[in-house]
Amino acid sequence: MAVQTGLGEPRGPWFVSPELDPHGRDGWQRWAVPGQGDTGGRRGWRGRLLAAAAVVAVSTLSGAAAGAWVADETGSPGSAASAAAVPAELVTAAERSVPGVVSVLVGSGSGASASGSGFAIDDQQHLITNDHILAKGGGRGVTVELPDGRRYPAEVVGREPGSDLAVLRVPPDAALTPLPLAKAGATRVGEPVLAVGSPLGLAGTVTAGIVSALDRPVRLGTIRHRAVQTDASINPGNSGGPLVNARGEVVGVNTAIATIDGNGSIGIGFAIPIDQVQQTADTIIGKGG
Fold first, then answer.
1. Do the domain assignments include residue 38?
2. Count of domains forming the chain
3. What's the CATH number where 229 sits?
4. Is the pTM of this model over 0.90?
5. Model confidence pLDDT, tens digit, residues 72-84
6. Residue range(s) defining the domain that contains residue 164
């Protein structure tokens, strides 16, 4: 498989990215072990591990590639799963968020070629998703599937490939619940978050984690941006879905994950920050109605 460069560029699904190094050095290996040089065999075990892996790749999360299986908490008494308490605020956040999150399908029937997620942002039934989902579908028809299984053809209001964002609109009778957006600058490292979407077509999937870092320099679309990094499990099909905080507010749009040798989620995901999302969406809606 040909290797493309750039994190999150819509050429998917797998990428090698030299763009992640915040210190100006080239490549994931030195980004993962900052401060260590190229020679002398003194990179330490992490450097040797990444060197042995040969390829560290990134998925833009569209399509139906391999991902995670989501299971409920049915562990036996005393098991780790049943012993871990779920914070009540995250349960409430999930209950509030899932009704406003949809599956985005590009193409139809046997010709369907891309899928992802999206979410409602206002009572005009505008939806946010990733542009790379539409690009992968080659401009064919877009269908939105609601949490209750209803399907609607979606109008593409506008696309912004540079920020990897797009705005869709569905008919008023879809009656989707818009998700509240977090205030710009309010997100904090370490706060709990949920990734909501349709990995592998499993609609209404919710995974939990924390905000791992802010202002992470990555390439999303055609432009270098600073992203929200999270360890919430996100996989192919999560693209375009919301990353929400414990109050149910959207803090970002899930867009890319890092992988080693093309394997599934390793707990390093990236989301477009909500202030950029809102600015882009307002511009697109202002132009397209």
1. no
2. 1
3. 2.40.10.120
4. no
5. 444 444 444 444 5
6. 82-254+267-289
pLDDT at 145 over 50: yes
Q: Which residue did the predictor score with more confidence, 280 or 110?
A: 280
Domain assignment present for residue 39? The answer is: no
**263 alpha-carbon distance from chain centroid:** 16
The residues assigned a catalytic role are 132, 164, 239
List, as one string, the DSSP characters of the chain.
Answer: ---EESTT-TT-SEEE-STT-TTS-SSHHHHHSTT--SSTT-SHHHHHHHHHH--EEEE---SS-S--------PPTTSHHHHSPPPHHHHHHHHHHGGGEEEEEES-GGG--EEEEEEE-STT-EEEE-HHHHHHTTT--EEEE-TTS-EEE-EEEEEEGGGTEEEEE--GGG-PPPPPBPPTT---TT-EEEEEE-GGG-TTEEEEEEEEEEEEEEEETTEEEEEEEE-S---TT-TTPEEEETTS-EEEEEEEEEEETT-S--S-EEEEEHHHHHHHHHHHHHHH-
In a domain, 13, yes or no: no
Whether residue 55 is contained in a domain is answered as no
